[in-house]
Amino acid sequence: MGIEDCTILHLDMDAFFASVEVRDDPSLQGLPVVVGGAGNHGVVAAASYPARARGISSAMPMAIARRRAPDLVIVPPRIDVYREVSARVMDLLREVTPAIEQISVDEAFLDVAGARRLFGPPDRIAQRLRSRIREELDLPSSVGGSVSRAVAKIASARAKPDGMLIVPAEQTASFLAPLPVGVISGIGPKAQQALERLGVRTVGQLRDVPASALRRAVGPQAPMIATLAAGEDRTGLGTRVRDRSVGTERTYEHDLVDPAEVRRRLTVMADEVSRSLRRSDLAARAVSVKLRAPDGTTITRSATMDQPTASGERLREHVVALWDREVPRMPAVRLAGVRAERLQETSSHPTATELTGRGTGWGGLESAMDRARDRFGSESLTRGSTLEPREG
Ligand SMILES: [Mg+2]
Fold first, then answer.
1. How far apart are the CA of 129 and the centre of ligand 1, in A?
2. I need a labelling partner for 170 at 20 to 30 A (CA). Which of 54, 141, 286, 360 fits?
3. Hey, what CATH topology would domain 1-144+154-166 get?
4. Prediction pTM value
5. Where in the chain is the domain with CATH 3.30.1490.100?
6. Of residues 107, 341, 354, 366, which has the active-site annotation?
7. Which residue windows does the record flag with biased composition (Polar residues) (predicted)?
8. Is it true that domain 246-346 has CATH number 3.40.1440.60?
């Protein structure tokens, strides 16, 4: 085992939207640049490294970013340009291997096992990819490598900016040990707080948490997280567990006989489910509604989405449609539930389509708002917030 076996690479562009803007307007070099809506309710979609040095991060409300850097340069998003650059990045990756899994506009996993014969060991492939992106697109990127997709992603984040970090299997446990538990996707702010109450801050400390306590703190992903913390995860591309689901259900003391009341409760549950998806960076391809009549008859109905989503608005639409169809058969409801199914991981960054608010709905913006709420505890973020694409 060594670098040769680290065939899972995670390539991530650095401060992608902001880097594209600085590239196209060199007078912005070295300045605190953010991409996002300049209005009062704008949210930072991307922050340059000089902006980050001032404590500005993506998903931050623009008002806070302005306070931290009075000389902030706010550039409106140019979605079409980012999409074009993104396509060129992905084309460069495909020249090395077809085994690619793109997870957002600026991020992809590659399995370079089959490319080694032609291009050399994974570290040389990673270096080659980074220099081609630099030469042809004039943009910085970082690459992490490992035998595990989860570790590759953590490594690319540690390699930033403009770096590379390959973690051999036998060094994984010691690499992860000092890192904060939040580096693990699947450990969101809530789980972090729960772990902190157990005195656990680092991945190394996670290893000493008994299975039952870990499950209480982080939920059903506990076994996966324990394996990862032990440095034993070997999950590569295409071998992920896709049959996980996230759901909630309630049994009512009294029968619900008003269809509007049932609809309202289902939409509340759809929102809860969508929030927990976003907390874990997951998106669902299907959503189901479970209904139980007072006589115990239970039905489950599900709908498939055109695209994986974590958007509350999307889930609500489908849940309401499923309920409206069942109303005639369900004059009274004793139990109702909503479950998101066929889950897959998403990037924690909003995608270009999400930023425009077209196509996939407001998924990216919603998760940006969740993170802003988690981080800044703002009560004032509302759905009025928008990220407008550049006009004219
Ligand atoms: Mg990135």
1. 15
2. 141
3. Alpha-Beta Plaits (3.30.70)
4. 0.66
5. 246-346
6. 107
7. 345-354
8. no
